[in-house]
Amino acid sequence: MKLEVLEKDKVYHIYNRGINSETIFNSVENKQYFLKLYSKYLENKADTFAYCLMDNHFHFIIRIVNEKEITQALSNLFNSYVKAFNKQNNRTGSLFEKHFKRIQIINETYLLNLIQYVHLNPKHHLDLDYKCFQFSSYQSIISDKPTKLLREEVIQLFDSKDNFIYCHDFKNEILSEKHLFE
Predict the structure, then answer these.
(1) pLDDT, tens digit, for every residue of 104-124?
(2) Range of the domain at 147
(3) Concatenated DSSP letters of 37-88
């Protein structure tokens, strides 16, 4: 299968999960380390709109800044993390399913929905409060603390911080009601 080439100035949903949906982050420290590696390897190569790290998968929404180096940078990130995780857990072999998945975001509506989907992952996978989930970009976007995220751009996509919050709450309510009828 030929993988889509990541192009400069394009926005992508980058995601993957553990082999057989196994755990890829078994501690807070694992998630912190992964984000540290993410910053190290992707700085000046990609801008981040949103992210979420779940126990067995992750999501990033990024815009490519340096297309020549991004694929290698992502590969280095994942390989570095797997080596550390394997050493820590006395295991060998692959941790992630094949290659990381990448889907180009082709319009603003898709981007808005995807940002909400990524942030709502904790609620709909683990029934956790997505607003307080530590390993999602949701809190960083609504915060005034310094961040490397594209906070202002994300807020502008939703027109305001209040609307960003409202849209997430509304989408969460709709998805919660949907589960009642399944």
Answers:
(1) 999 999 999 999 999 999 987
(2) 11-180
(3) HHHHHHTTTEEEEEEEE-SSEEEEEEEES-HHHHHHHHHHHHHHHHHHHHHH
Longest dimension (CA), the chain: 48
- Residue 5 in any domain: the answer is no
Place 181 in a pLDDT band, splitting at 50, 70 and 90.
very low
Q: Would residue 43 count as lying in a domain?
A: yes
CATH at 144: 3.30.70.1290
Is position 128 within any domain?
yes
Q: How many domains, the chain?
A: 1
Residues 36-83: tens digit of each pLDDT: 999 999 999 999 999 999 999 999 999 999 988 999 999 999 999 999
